[in-house]
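Entry 14. Ran structure prediction on the chain below.
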Amino acid sequence: MPDRDHDILIVGGGVIGLCCGWYLSQAGRTVTILDRDPLRRESCSDENAGMVVPSHFIPLAAPGVISQGLKWMLNPKSPFYLRPRFDPALWSWCWKFFRHANAQHVNDTKQLLADISLESRRLFLELADELKFDLATRGLMMLCRTEAGLEDEAKVAAMAKEVGVEAELCDAARVCELDPNVQMDVAGAVWFAQDCHLDPLDFLNALRDGIRAKGGRFIDDECTGFERQGNRLTGIHTADGETHTAEHLIVAVGAWTPELARELDLRIPMQGGKGYSLTLRNPAELPRLCSLLKEARVAVTPMGGKLRVGGTMEICGTDLSINRTRLQGIIEGFCQFFPAFSPDDFTGIEPWSGLRPCTPDGLPCIGPIPGLQNATVATGHNMLGLSLGPVTGQLVTTLITNGKPDPNVEMPKLAPGRF
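Output, structure tokens:
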């Protein structure tokens, strides 16, 4: 076998690429991570809500999502927007999403998502101990302002128990008991005790340090193309004119996957789902628990002494621009639930935007690239990239080191070529 420049070469330095790098390093492989965005200007990982959510066992493609989305399209401040444009890939994705947004799809996938999410939570506990980052394990509250919203979430709580996820239906008094030092205008909540939260940047930095300590290295450059012979990749080209060879290649570039994957004859239907966050450095109140605001579709996460508020889902390709009107919708929705805050508290705060890699069935793509013996893809985690990062790294490591997938996971449902 000819000498290679690298053992494992990972294209993409976000949370998925880093988790793959960490677990492969743990398995004794030498890892190189190629990252086109070392300053993290386009990352979906660094300033997201930082939630580890076994509670999210229902895929993005679910009943009611399309009808609700169409209603929201009429409201410029709503939590959802699909930017109409002449793009065959977009409309193909929409059609596939429509075909998956049904009860049968949820029933077919909910146990898989619950199982890998709970395994990822277990791995987070190990990682926090080994890599020394803070992980809050107090759970998440799905806060509801209305009785109708609470009734909807009660159904989710019942389903959660069926798949092994803890869920407690709470009235307003119980909500105050769980988080007593914060004013909340709510009818009640569902408390998912197994959910966790962290500062994502602390987690990513801990992974980077851990990979370097295991002998891994990072290259600031962009993959621009591939060389292949038969069923093996023989090299990748980068923007600086270099050609790198590797024993095994992992593609983990999130919302930018489709263009790169096409060069490997892999078609993954994917759209960027843009979200925003704002971080209050000196909040008027600081919750103990992270929360999701049911009616506003806003995420709220305490991070040390900071409070991060985020939301929206804009299907927008790879556009990272800020829509100020939708940003205002996040702020107003948050203030309705937490009356100690006002929109003025967010004046002067620089917003962040990131792109979630959204597949039309709401499931990630994890597995070998069809037709290639030495290439794997790990992408398409929708809104669960951070939450499923560790289990993805573990699944990819098992696949590469053992030459076959984890027998305990229904990997065919995650196969990159399933579309």
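The chain has two domains: 6-45+202-269+361-414, 56-86+94-99+136-195+270-358. Will compare against last week's run tomorrow.
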